[in-house]
Amino acid sequence: MPDMLPPGAARPTILVVEDEASLLTLLRYNLEKQGFHVEEAADGQEALLRIAEAKPDLVLLDWMLPALSGLEVCRQIRRRPATRDLPVIMVTARTEDQDSVRALDIGADDYITKPFAMEGLMARIRALLRRSGTVAAKGTLAWRDLAMDQDAHRVTRAGRALHLGPTEYRLLEFFLQHPGRVFSREQLLDAVWGRDIHVEPRTVDVHIRRLRKAINGPGAMDVIRTVRSAGYALDVEAA
Ligand code: CA
Fold first, then answer.
1. Residues 29-50: pLDDT tens digits?
2. What is the model's pTM?
3. CA of 46 to the centre of ligand 1 (A)
4. Domain with 176 in it: what CATH number?
5. Of 43, 110, 179, 195, which is least packed with CB atoms within 10 Å of its CB?
6. Which domain holds residue 145?
7. Spacing, Cα 24 to ligand 1 middle (Å)
8. What is the C-alpha to C-alpha distance for residues 129 and 122, in angstroms, rounded to an integer?
9. Cα of 86 from ligand 1 centre, angstroms
Protein backbone atom coordinates (compact mmCIF):
# COMPACT_ATOMS: atom_id res chain seq x y z
CA MET A 1 0.00 0.00 0.00
CA PRO A 2 1.10 3.53 -0.48
CA ASP A 3 3.58 4.67 2.12
CA MET A 4 3.49 1.52 4.13
CA LEU A 5 3.17 -1.75 2.30
CA PRO A 6 4.33 -3.14 -1.00
CA PRO A 7 1.67 -2.82 -3.69
CA GLY A 8 -0.57 -5.82 -3.77
CA ALA A 9 -0.26 -6.38 -0.03
CA ALA A 10 -3.46 -6.25 1.97
CA ARG A 11 -4.40 -2.79 3.12
CA PRO A 12 -4.68 -2.45 6.86
CA THR A 13 -8.25 -1.76 7.91
CA ILE A 14 -8.88 1.15 10.25
CA LEU A 15 -12.22 1.36 12.02
CA VAL A 16 -13.05 5.00 12.69
CA VAL A 17 -15.59 5.41 15.48
CA GLU A 18 -16.77 8.99 15.38
CA ASP A 19 -20.23 10.55 15.66
CA GLU A 20 -19.21 13.86 14.15
CA ALA A 21 -19.93 13.42 10.43
CA SER A 22 -17.59 16.13 9.18
CA LEU A 23 -14.65 14.78 11.16
CA LEU A 24 -15.47 11.27 10.00
CA THR A 25 -15.34 12.41 6.38
CA LEU A 26 -12.04 14.18 6.94
CA LEU A 27 -10.53 11.15 8.65
CA ARG A 28 -11.72 8.80 5.92
CA TYR A 29 -10.25 11.03 3.24
CA ASN A 30 -6.87 11.24 4.94
CA LEU A 31 -6.67 7.57 5.87
CA GLU A 32 -7.59 6.45 2.37
CA LYS A 33 -5.00 8.80 0.97
CA GLN A 34 -2.45 6.96 3.11
CA GLY A 35 -3.65 3.70 1.59
CA PHE A 36 -5.76 2.37 4.46
CA HIS A 37 -9.07 0.65 4.08
CA VAL A 38 -11.60 2.53 6.23
CA GLU A 39 -14.63 1.21 8.09
CA GLU A 40 -16.94 3.48 10.04
CA ALA A 41 -19.13 3.42 13.10
CA ALA A 42 -21.10 6.37 14.44
CA ASP A 43 -21.73 5.13 17.98
CA GLY A 44 -20.39 2.71 20.55
CA GLN A 45 -22.84 -0.12 19.88
CA GLU A 46 -22.18 -0.02 16.17
CA ALA A 47 -18.45 0.04 16.89
CA LEU A 48 -18.59 -3.29 18.67
CA LEU A 49 -20.60 -4.81 15.81
CA ARG A 50 -18.23 -3.46 13.17
CA ILE A 51 -15.23 -4.79 15.08
CA ALA A 52 -16.70 -8.28 15.04
CA GLU A 53 -17.63 -8.08 11.35
CA ALA A 54 -14.83 -6.09 9.78
CA LYS A 55 -11.95 -7.34 11.95
CA PRO A 56 -10.04 -4.07 11.75
CA ASP A 57 -6.28 -3.83 12.30
CA LEU A 58 -6.68 -0.70 14.38
CA VAL A 59 -9.53 1.26 15.97
CA LEU A 60 -9.58 5.02 16.12
CA LEU A 61 -12.04 5.54 18.92
CA ASP A 62 -13.73 8.78 19.90
CA TRP A 63 -14.24 9.18 23.62
CA MET A 64 -17.56 11.02 23.53
CA LEU A 65 -20.03 8.80 21.70
CA PRO A 66 -23.76 8.20 21.81
CA ALA A 67 -25.10 4.85 23.02
CA LEU A 68 -21.86 3.63 24.57
CA SER A 69 -18.88 5.82 25.46
CA GLY A 70 -15.50 5.28 23.87
CA LEU A 71 -14.14 4.23 27.23
CA GLU A 72 -16.78 1.53 27.58
CA VAL A 73 -16.11 0.33 24.02
CA CYS A 74 -12.41 0.14 24.79
CA ARG A 75 -13.11 -1.76 27.99
CA GLN A 76 -15.17 -4.31 26.09
CA ILE A 77 -12.55 -4.66 23.36
CA ARG A 78 -10.00 -5.56 26.02
CA ARG A 79 -12.37 -7.92 27.78
CA ARG A 80 -13.05 -10.07 24.71
CA PRO A 81 -10.35 -12.62 23.93
CA ALA A 82 -10.71 -12.10 20.16
CA THR A 83 -9.92 -8.39 20.42
CA ARG A 84 -7.73 -8.25 23.49
CA ASP A 85 -4.69 -7.20 21.44
CA LEU A 86 -6.50 -5.00 18.92
CA PRO A 87 -4.65 -1.68 18.71
CA VAL A 88 -6.80 1.23 19.92
CA ILE A 89 -6.13 4.95 19.69
CA MET A 90 -8.53 7.02 21.79
CA VAL A 91 -9.54 10.41 20.50
CA THR A 92 -10.46 12.82 23.24
CA ALA A 93 -11.72 16.37 23.22
CA ARG A 94 -10.65 16.73 26.80
CA THR A 95 -7.35 18.25 27.66
CA GLU A 96 -7.19 17.12 31.24
CA ASP A 97 -4.24 14.79 31.70
CA GLN A 98 -6.44 12.81 34.02
CA ASP A 99 -8.58 11.63 31.10
CA SER A 100 -5.61 10.63 28.98
CA VAL A 101 -4.32 8.57 31.86
CA ARG A 102 -7.75 6.98 32.18
CA ALA A 103 -7.75 6.10 28.47
CA LEU A 104 -4.43 4.33 28.85
CA ASP A 105 -5.56 2.68 32.08
CA ILE A 106 -8.58 1.24 30.38
CA GLY A 107 -6.29 -0.32 27.77
CA ALA A 108 -5.99 2.16 24.90
CA ASP A 109 -2.57 1.89 23.27
CA ASP A 110 -2.36 5.59 22.57
CA TYR A 111 -4.50 8.70 22.64
CA ILE A 112 -4.73 11.95 20.77
CA THR A 113 -6.48 15.13 21.84
CA LYS A 114 -8.81 17.10 19.59
CA PRO A 115 -8.07 19.23 17.70
CA PHE A 116 -5.15 17.29 16.25
CA ALA A 117 -2.96 17.58 13.18
CA MET A 118 -3.67 14.87 10.60
CA GLU A 119 0.02 14.28 10.06
CA GLY A 120 0.56 13.58 13.74
CA LEU A 121 -2.33 11.17 13.83
CA MET A 122 -1.08 9.31 10.73
CA ALA A 123 2.36 8.97 12.29
CA ARG A 124 0.86 7.49 15.46
CA ILE A 125 -1.25 5.07 13.45
CA ARG A 126 1.76 3.93 11.48
CA ALA A 127 3.83 3.56 14.65
CA LEU A 128 1.13 1.52 16.36
CA LEU A 129 0.63 -0.73 13.32
CA ARG A 130 4.37 -1.35 13.25
CA ARG A 131 4.39 -2.14 16.93
CA SER A 132 1.51 -4.58 16.53
CA GLY A 133 3.29 -6.26 13.63
CA THR A 134 0.58 -5.39 11.07
CA VAL A 135 3.12 -3.37 9.16
CA ALA A 136 6.75 -4.32 9.13
CA ALA A 137 9.41 -1.72 9.65
CA LYS A 138 10.69 -0.91 6.24
CA GLY A 139 14.11 -0.46 4.83
CA THR A 140 15.74 1.33 1.99
CA LEU A 141 14.87 1.11 -1.66
CA ALA A 142 17.57 1.97 -4.14
CA TRP A 143 18.04 2.02 -7.88
CA ARG A 144 20.95 3.57 -9.73
CA ASP A 145 21.69 6.81 -7.87
CA LEU A 146 18.24 7.02 -6.24
CA ALA A 147 17.75 5.97 -2.62
CA MET A 148 14.60 6.01 -0.50
CA ASP A 149 14.75 5.53 3.25
CA GLN A 150 11.20 4.36 3.88
CA ASP A 151 11.33 4.67 7.65
CA ALA A 152 12.67 8.20 7.68
CA HIS A 153 10.72 9.14 4.53
CA ARG A 154 13.87 10.53 2.94
CA VAL A 155 14.78 10.41 -0.71
CA THR A 156 18.15 11.22 -2.21
CA ARG A 157 19.62 11.22 -5.67
CA ALA A 158 23.38 10.91 -5.85
CA GLY A 159 23.39 11.81 -2.17
CA ARG A 160 21.43 15.02 -2.67
CA ALA A 161 18.18 15.28 -0.70
CA LEU A 162 15.03 15.49 -2.80
CA HIS A 163 11.78 17.07 -1.72
CA LEU A 164 8.73 15.18 -2.91
CA GLY A 165 5.05 15.74 -2.27
CA PRO A 166 3.20 12.78 -0.70
CA THR A 167 1.82 11.51 -4.02
CA GLU A 168 5.17 11.85 -5.78
CA TYR A 169 6.75 9.98 -2.89
CA ARG A 170 4.35 7.08 -3.26
CA LEU A 171 4.75 7.03 -7.03
CA LEU A 172 8.51 6.86 -6.72
CA GLU A 173 8.24 4.23 -4.00
CA PHE A 174 6.11 2.10 -6.29
CA PHE A 175 8.51 2.54 -9.20
CA LEU A 176 11.48 1.69 -6.99
CA GLN A 177 9.78 -1.55 -6.04
CA HIS A 178 9.50 -2.48 -9.73
CA PRO A 179 12.32 -0.80 -11.63
CA GLY A 180 12.20 -1.24 -15.38
CA ARG A 181 8.58 -2.35 -15.45
CA VAL A 182 6.08 -0.36 -17.48
CA PHE A 183 2.83 0.57 -15.74
CA SER A 184 -0.29 1.97 -17.33
CA ARG A 185 -1.95 5.02 -15.81
CA GLU A 186 -4.72 2.78 -14.49
CA GLN A 187 -2.23 0.47 -12.81
CA LEU A 188 -0.50 3.43 -11.22
CA LEU A 189 -3.83 4.80 -10.04
CA ASP A 190 -4.69 1.49 -8.41
CA ALA A 191 -1.32 1.11 -6.77
CA VAL A 192 -0.70 4.65 -5.64
CA TRP A 193 -4.11 6.25 -5.17
CA GLY A 194 -6.09 3.16 -4.33
CA ARG A 195 -8.95 1.45 -6.07
CA ASP A 196 -11.64 3.14 -4.01
CA ILE A 197 -10.69 6.66 -4.94
CA HIS A 198 -11.93 8.13 -8.19
CA VAL A 199 -9.14 9.98 -9.96
CA GLU A 200 -8.86 10.81 -13.64
CA PRO A 201 -6.04 8.94 -15.40
CA ARG A 202 -4.73 12.33 -16.51
CA THR A 203 -3.93 13.12 -12.89
CA VAL A 204 -1.16 10.55 -13.18
CA ASP A 205 0.51 12.66 -15.86
CA VAL A 206 0.45 15.70 -13.60
CA HIS A 207 2.16 13.84 -10.78
CA ILE A 208 4.67 12.19 -13.12
CA ARG A 209 5.59 15.67 -14.29
CA ARG A 210 6.08 16.81 -10.70
CA LEU A 211 8.05 13.70 -9.86
CA ARG A 212 10.35 14.25 -12.84
CA LYS A 213 10.87 17.85 -11.83
CA ALA A 214 11.72 16.81 -8.28
CA ILE A 215 14.15 14.02 -9.10
CA ASN A 216 15.75 15.18 -12.32
CA GLY A 217 17.99 18.03 -11.25
CA PRO A 218 19.90 20.14 -13.73
CA GLY A 219 22.08 17.93 -15.88
CA ALA A 220 20.69 14.74 -14.32
CA MET A 221 19.46 11.96 -16.57
CA ASP A 222 15.67 11.53 -16.77
CA VAL A 223 14.93 8.23 -15.06
CA ILE A 224 11.19 8.18 -15.75
CA ARG A 225 10.58 6.69 -19.15
CA THR A 226 7.38 7.52 -21.01
CA VAL A 227 6.23 4.56 -23.02
CA ARG A 228 3.89 5.78 -25.73
CA SER A 229 0.31 4.56 -25.36
CA ALA A 230 1.46 2.24 -22.56
CA GLY A 231 2.44 4.27 -19.53
CA TYR A 232 5.52 4.94 -17.46
CA ALA A 233 8.50 3.11 -16.07
CA LEU A 234 11.43 3.85 -13.81
CA ASP A 235 14.03 3.33 -16.46
CA VAL A 236 16.37 5.17 -18.77
CA GLU A 237 15.94 5.48 -22.50
CA ALA A 238 18.12 3.08 -24.42
CA ALA A 239 21.03 5.07 -25.82
CA1 CA B 1 -17.90 12.62 19.67
1. 999 988 899 999 999 999 999 9
2. 0.58
3. 14
4. 1.10.10.10
5. 195
6. 140-234
7. 10
8. 11
9. 21
